[in-house]
Every structure is written in C-alpha cells, then in structure tokens.
C-alpha cells in the first residue's frame, strides 16, 4: 500500500502543483506560484527515496514494481498501456533527478524573484520536471516517447523564455529542430518494435527479442541510439546545446544536470538488452562517445563565456557516459550520470551566483565572460569554495564523488584490452580537469589587467540561493559512497578499485590541473595573448572546428528549398494545378447536371433501367 501511494505521488504531486499554479496562484498570487512547485518536488523526492530504499533492501519482490494504470489502445493482440515501472535503473536516476530538481527550484525562486514573468517561468519549469519523472518511470517505449516529447517541448519554452531577445528565439528553434532528428529516429524505432512484436512494453520486448529479424533488431538499435545521441548532444548532433545557454541559468542547471541531456543516456541504459544484441551499435556508441568527449573538452578549454564552458563540459561528460554504454559498462554510465547530476548542477548554480552578484556591473547581461570576472574569491567566498568542490569532483580527484564514478568508467574501458581506447579515455579525463580548473582560476583567482572582476563590487546572493549551493556541494563531495547501493539496485557488481586504473586517472587529472595552473596563473596573460596572436584559431574553435558553420549552411539550404517550394514553384505550378483541378470538377459537375434536371419521370426510367440491369446480372450468374 505504501509503495502504491509513493508511486502515485510521483505523478499526482507535480500534476496537482501545475493545476494549482495555473488556476489558483497565477490569477491571484502570481509571485507565489513556486510554492506548490516546491511542495511537489519535495513530495516526489521523499517518494523516490522511499522506493529506492524498498528496492535496495529487497522489500519489493524481484527488485521491480510494475503497474498498468489503463489501456490506451487495443486491436487484436496489439495493445498499448499506460503504466509505471519502478526498478533499480529508474529509481536510482529518479532519486538524483528529484533531489537536484528540488534544490534548483529553491535556487530559482531567488534567482528569478525580480523577473516579471516569474509565474510563467515556474509553470514551464515544473512541466519540465513532470515530463522527466514520467519519462523515467514509463514501462513501455511509446509512453516514454510521449514524455520524451514533453521534455523537448519544455526545453524549447525555457530556452526561449526571454523571447524578446532574438538570440533566445534562435537558440530555442535550433534546439527544437535539432532534437526533431533524434525524435523521429526514436519514433521509428518504436514503430519497428510495435510492428515486429505487437507491444512496446519493456519486459515483453526484451523477452521476445529472438522473434525479431536481424535487420529489424539492428535498425531498432541504431535508431534508438540516434534518438539518444540528439537528446544527449553527441557529435554530430551536439550543436544545439551551447546555444541553449540563452535561457535563465536555473534552466541550464536543470537541463544539464537532471533532465534534458540525461534523458538520452537513460534511454540507452534502458535499452541495454537491445543494444547488447547488436555489437556494432555498441562499438559505434563507444567511438562517438569518445570523439564527443575529446572534441568538447578541447573546445570548452578555449571558451570565454562561463556558461558555454560548462555547456561543453556537459557534452564532454555525456560523451564519457556514452563511452561506458558502448563498452557494456551499464553501472559506470549510471553511476557517472548520478554523480554528474550533483556536481554539474552545482557548477551552473555557482555560475548563476556570479552572474547574479555582478548583475549591476554587467548592465543587465544574462551571462559572464572571463573578461568580466577574475579575482572574485574574496568577494564570493562561498561561491568560489563550492565551485572548487564541484571542479575537484568533475576532475575525479579523490575522495570526491567524481573520482569513483569516473574510475568505474575507466575500469570498463581498460577491461576492453584496447590500449588506444584507454589512452584516449585518459586524455579526455585530463581535458576535463584542464577546462574546469582553467575556468576556476580565471574566474575566482588572480588580478589580471584584462579582467574587470576586482572592480565589479560583487556580493554573495541571499539565503535562498546559498542553501541549494551548499547542499549540492555536500552531495558532490559525498555521492561517491552511493556506488555500492547503486550497483545493488541495478543487479550489478560494483568494480573493485584497481590501483593501476586509479593511479592513471589521478595522474592524468593532475596533469590537467597543472596545465591549467600554468596557463592561467604562471602566465596570467596567456588566455588573451594567444587570441591576439592566433585570431583564426579562436575563430575555428568558436565554430566547433567548422561544424557549426556547416550545420548553419545546411539549415539555410533547407530553408531556401522550402522558400523555393513556397515561392515560384507553388505560384506557377502547384497553384495553377489546384485551380485547374477545381475548374475541372466544376465543369464536370455542370456537365453531369444534365442528368439531374429534377424531372421525376427521368428518374423513374433510370431506376427501372438500373433494376433491370441488376436483375439480368443475377439471372446470368445463377
């Protein structure tokens, strides 16, 4: 009974909060719209932790709990149900998502307090949360796809929240349209499974995989990977994520830590039984994940905008998770997904605190560059300390959370026996520590003449924004202890720490930190000197090695073709055809009107003739 109530809370709480927010708080208390949302997040978090404990302690038979609420559609043996699946995978991720979302909601209440669209923001924000919860606990692919699209819609609304800015509108459309590629792939995969098996329910699909033909299974696995690659910003579909920083910073934190981009990795984790049947797809996932991680780390290491550095950091970290999936390391991918949720949320909230504290000196700008920052540790001691904890966690420095999860991924890579793959994974780890500590040093340390930070008169934000930051700092430090419980609920064995792998990971992370210290502290003007000396290199890096320009040109080509269809071709050809078609049928109707003159005698003779023809046919046939 308690479990049923907890599962019901996962949907009842956010739906009720949205209804109260829209119909009650919006017209009467718009500045208090966040109250039911915060209560909803807290309720879902408590329910998630309760269910996680139940599964971990073996109080739920079989380690999973599934409920079919009602039947959507049924035709013969084909059916689609709306149901809930609570198992080790869904509840471990949901626990992180609900907890991080709660803290970000609290932070957003302070960050967006002065925004005139405060009410609209929280309605969109909580719809984002509801969609992610629904996605995580769906028990079939079709239902998962519905919530998948809900996450995409919410991201579009939130990225373009400040729609009066052209850049925000463009970023929202870019994210929406890029994700359509993955959404179509996911939809086609669902159709293939429905056609081949007559069901989209996870348990039935995974049991009946041998019934699918090899080509159908391969196509479904490949399409599922494409869907995940778009959502989780894997190369070459990563282009939307850096521009998504045009939304408010709490949106960036929620999207990068707990919702949008983690949905793709979760889809791969959920679809692991399918992917394992098609080794070629796993190999492709490992290759693309590694390429994405290395490329994003290289680009992020050269960016100037705080939120864009963190955006490329997210892409790089997601690449490591996809690499883990590609090597068959489900535990490593899920463990990194959870620890990443804590420290990446913390990094974005710290960036938001910097932006908020310097709002007056930035003349209302919604982001901060390294030119605006510098030497802020004295003015923002809490924020800089929390950022340091998150940076250490992301870099994989023991004993913080990221050390254990990244180590689990590296051990899976080393277990493949590929020296090239192992070295490249270590380089990706070194790149991670370089770009995050470069940002830390440039933002909070130093007194460089190129920077305006020491003269910015920044100040720590208020209590409502400090508490979530401090809480996330604790989780970023301590979440490494969750490794054993996560492995247990997943039904996997947590890998034992290998001294060789741990030492290699720590050494490469240390090299990245030392390189960042050399480039920012020992040579404080280096970041500006190389840009002046190599403006073309900066342009190439800003353009993602030319990929952003290529995709923009491709989009312009599609738009030009659409305009061609809607312009001369439509006017000269299609319009003429449709008008001629209408004239033809009008003329045909007028011609046939000769037989419909309203003369009853004529109608009677035609009826007699028809009856005679019908009678003759019957006689001749029998």
Write the layout of secondary structure elements.
Layout: H1 2-28, H2 34-56, E1 64-75, E2 78-87, H3 88-111, H4 118-137, H5 141-159, H6 166-197, H7 202-207, H8 214-231, H9 240-243, H10 249-257, H11 260-270, H12 272-275, H13 279-300, H14 306-326, H15 330-357, H16 381-395, H17 401-415, H18 419-444, H19 463-478, H20 483-490, H21 499-522, H22 526-533, H23 535-542, H24 547-566, H25 568-592, H26 600-621
Antiparallel strand pairs: 1-2
What's the quick description here?
The protein contains 26 helices and two strands. By secondary structure, it is mainly alpha-helical.
Structure commentary:
- The chain is mainly α.
- Among the domains are: 309-533, no CATH class; 567-621, no CATH class.
- It has 26 helices and 2 strands.
- A two-stranded antiparallel ribbon has the order 1-2.
- Helix 11 runs parallel beside helix 14 (306-326).
- The N and C termini lie far apart (69 Å).
- The model has no long low-confidence stretch (mean pLDDT 88).
């Amino acid at each position: 009974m308690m479990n049923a109530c907890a599962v019901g809370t996962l949907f009842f709480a956010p739906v009720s909060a949205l209804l109260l927010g829209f119909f009650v708080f919006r017209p009467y208390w718009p500045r208090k719209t966040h109250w039911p949302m915060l209560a909803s997040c807290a309720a879902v978090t408590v329910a998630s932790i309760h269910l996680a404990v139940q599964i971990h302690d073996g109080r739920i038979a079989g380690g999973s709990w599934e409920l079919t609420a009602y039947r959507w559609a049924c035709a013969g043996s084909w059916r689609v149900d709306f149901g809930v699946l609570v198992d080790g995978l869904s509840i471990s991720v949901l626990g992180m998502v609900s907890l991080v979302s709660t803290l970000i909601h609290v932070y957003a209440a302070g960050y967006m307090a002065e925004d005139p669209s405060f009410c609209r923001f929280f309605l969109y924000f909580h719809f984002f949360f509801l969609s992610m919860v629904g996605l995580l606990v769906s028990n079939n692919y079709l239902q998962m796809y519905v919530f998948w699209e809900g996450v995409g819609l919410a991201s579009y609304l939130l990225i373009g929240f400040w729609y009066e800015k052209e850049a925000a509108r463009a970023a929202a459309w870019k994210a929406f349209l890029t994700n359509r590629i993955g959404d179509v792939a996911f939809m086609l995969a669902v159709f293939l499974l429905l056609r081949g098996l007559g069901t989209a329910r996870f348990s039935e699909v995974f049991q009946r995989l041998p019934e699918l033909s090899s080509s159908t299974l391969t196509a479904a696995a490949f399409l599922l990977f494409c869907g995940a690659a778009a959502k989780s910003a894997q190369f070459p579909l990563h282009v939307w994520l850096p521009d998504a920083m045009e939304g408010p910073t709490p949106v960036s934190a929620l999207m990068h830590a707990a919702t949008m981009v983690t949905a793709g990795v979760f889809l791969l984790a959920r679809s692991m039984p399918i992917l394992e049947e098609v080794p070629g797809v796993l190999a492709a996932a490992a290759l693309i994940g590694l390429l994405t991680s290395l490329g994003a780390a290289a680009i992020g290491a050269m960016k100037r905008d705080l939120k864009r550095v963190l955006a490329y950091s997210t892409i790089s970290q997601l690449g490591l998770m996809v690499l883990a999936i590609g090597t068959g390391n489900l535990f490593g991918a899920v463990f990194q997904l959870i620890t990443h949720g804590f420290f990446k949320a913390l990094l974005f909230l710290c960036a938001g605190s910097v932006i908020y504290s310097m709002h007056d000196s930035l003349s209302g700008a919604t982001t901060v560059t390294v030119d605006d920052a510098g030497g802020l540790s004295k003015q923002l001691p809490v924020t800089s300390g929390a950022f340091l904890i998150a940076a250490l966690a992301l870099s994989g420095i023991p004993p913080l959370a990221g050390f254990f999860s990244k180590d689990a991924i590296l051990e899976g890579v080393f277990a493949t026996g590929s020296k090239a793959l192992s070295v490249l994974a270590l380089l990706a780890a070194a790149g991670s520590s370089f770009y995050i500590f470069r940002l830390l040093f440039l933002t909070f340390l130093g007194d460089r003449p190129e920077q305006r930070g020491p003269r910015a008169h920044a100040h720590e934000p208020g209590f409502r924004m400090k508490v979530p930051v401090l809480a996330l700092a604790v989780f970023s430090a301590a979440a490494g202890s969750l490794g054993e419980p996560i492995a247990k609920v997943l039904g996997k064995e947590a890998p034992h720490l290998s001294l060789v792998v741990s030492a290699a990971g720590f050494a490469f992370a240390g090299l990245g930190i030392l390189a960042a210290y050399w480039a920012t502290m020992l040579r404080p003007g280096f970041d500006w000197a190389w840009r002046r000396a190599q403006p073309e290199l900066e342009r190439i890096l800003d353009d993602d090695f030319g990929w952003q320009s290529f995709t923009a040109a491709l989009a312009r080509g599609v738009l030009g073709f659409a305009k061609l269809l809607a312009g001369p071709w439509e006017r000269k050809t299609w319009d003429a055809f449709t008008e001629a078609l209408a004239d033809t049928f009008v003329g045909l109707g007028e011609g046939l009107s000769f037989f419909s003159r309203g003369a009853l005698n004529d109608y009677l003779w035609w009826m007699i003739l028809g009856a005679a023809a019908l009678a003759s046919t019957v006689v001749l046939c029998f």
